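[Q] Does anyone have a clean structure-token version of this?
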Amino acid sequence: MLQRIQTVYLAISLVASAALPFVFSLWTIDNTVAVFFTDEPFSIAFFAISSLLTLISIFSFKKRQNQFVLNRLNMIFNFILLGFFVYRTLNLSGETEVSEKGIGIILPAISIVMLVLANKAIKRDEDLVKSVDRLR
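[A] Here you go.
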């Protein structure tokens, strides 16, 4: 059932982790050089893992518990990626003027929020199925 609300949340998370990093820069060094996620091998790997986990989670709609666990694992990867971005922006070396932070830094946070909302919807579906099974 791909028409459920958690699929919409997961699709937004997929867009935030697969498509938007190509559009938005992570930060700008010296107000001239924009740094995208492709300049950091660590961020390439974690955005790819996050995108893959979200895609697998979308198509495992028949196994709600599996979907729930995949989303939790995806949240952990996004927290690691967010922590890496915070660490990296606080430790930019050799700066004489303040660099401009891009919107690409908050993409893992957007993905985390969407995954939390998807997990809440999955839990609600699971509770509904359990309550119907009790009535039988």
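[Q] Thanks! Anything notable?
[A] The beta strands are 27-29, 33-35, 100-101.
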